[in-house]
Write a structure and sequence with these properties.
Shape: flat
Radius of gyration: 22 Å
Number of strands: 0
Subcellular location: Cell inner membrane; Cell membrane
Oligomer: single chain
Strand content: under 5%
Domain ABC transmembrane type-1: 16-216
GO molecular function: transmembrane transporter activity
CATH class of the domain at 22-180: Mainly Alpha
Pfam families: BPD_transp_1
Largest sheet: none
Membrane topology: Multi-pass membrane protein
Length: 231
């Protein structure tokens, strides 16, 4: 393990970059899915509420690895069928990074939806009722009162979801993506030094987790400025 010629240090760092790219993409996609699901859960339409409840229930109940398989092989099957229409033969593989990030995003979105929903429910109903009594439009009520305060309550939970997404990114190696975990496996098999490579991977994961935790704590501290906490 090092950066000299023939060493594996640079390969491990590149794989770490791939892990971060997939995790960040999946987390961002999950934020979109989570916001839409949380909004639907507060809808006056029963169909939207049922859809949001079904989404969070199903995705939190299915193993993450199974979701990745369904996205990858399902997308590949669709691409193969489309290719057959234009004369292509054989199996057409779906983009691994794209399908992996979407799979992680769909799963994390189910968890983020519950975080956002809980943050909105934690708001003071008196402030919302006062704004409505004042005649404040819904979009202004959301932008000035609901969004700033819900974000404040959601940061700790979102930080926990990010840690979950970071660990889930290792599962994408099963469909061929060379991220940190897969690179450690390749290095261990080539050098017959599994302990060295898996220990290095563990240290890199812990480093990412530690830096992420510091950033989320800073964000939470800034968001809670001016708020009196119970001792």
């Amino acid at each position: 393990m090092g950066f000299a010629e023939g060493a594996w240090g640079m390969d491990m760092l590149k794989a770490t970059g791939v892990t971060l790219c997939v995790a960040l993409s999946g987390f961002a996609a999950g934020a979109v899915f989570g916001c839409l699901s949380a909004a639907a859960s507060f809808s006056s339409l029963r169909a939207l509420r049922a859809l949001a409840d079904g989404y969070t229930t199903i995705l939190r109940g299915i193993p993450d690895l199974l979701v990745i398989y369904l996205f990858y092989f399902g997308s590949s099957a669709v691409l193969s069928q489309l290719g057959a229409l234009f004369g292509s033969e054989g199996f057409i593989s779906a983009p691994v990074i794209l399908t992996g990030a979407l799979a992680i995003g769909v799963v994390s979105g189910a968890y983020q939806a519950e975080v956002y929903r809980g943050a909105v429910l934690a708001l003071s109903k008196g402030e919302i009722e006062a704004a409505r009594a004042y005649g404040m439009p819904n979009h202004l009520l959301f932008r000035r009162i609901i969004l700033p305060q819900a974000t404040r309550f959601a940061i700790p939970g979102v930080g926990n979801v990010w840690q979950l997404v970071l660990k889930e990114s290792a599962l994408i190696s099963v469909v061929g993506l060379i991220e940190l975990m897969r690179q450690a496996q390749i290095g261990a098999g080539s050098t017959r030094k599994p302990f060295t490579f898996f220990l290095t991977a563990a240290v890199l994961y812990l480093l990412i987790s530690f830096v992420s935790g510091v950033l989320f704590r800073i964000a939470e501290k800034r968001a809670m400025r001016g708020i009196r906490r119970a001792v």
